[in-house]
Amino acid sequence: xxxxxxxxxxxxxxxxxxxxxxxxxxxxxxxxxxxxxxxxxxxxxxxxxxxxxxxxxxxxxxxxxxxxxxxxxxxxxxxxxxxxxxxxxxxxxxx
Length: 95
What we know:
There is one protein chain. The protein is mainly α. The chain has a single domain (19-93), classed as Orthogonal Bundle (Non-ribosomal Peptide Synthetase Peptidyl Carrier Protein, Chain A). Helix content is 55%, strand content 0%. The longest helix has 15 residues, at 55-69.
């Protein structure tokens, strides 16, 4: 039993939520990660046009989504998506 609990603890983060990310949470996280105002983006925003968007920040963004919501996006998920709404749909599919 101890081993099972240890494995579960390793696969979840203390701050990780156990339900899908809402649209508002995705916008808030995106604004935070790219240091922009929340009201400057919405679901129709092409995330590749965001200031500071590059491959390194894409990996950080993927990691933040995984850390906070447990949805592991791949780099191909991002390549196939165009907007924040596309990313949100992919996150929902992970649950």
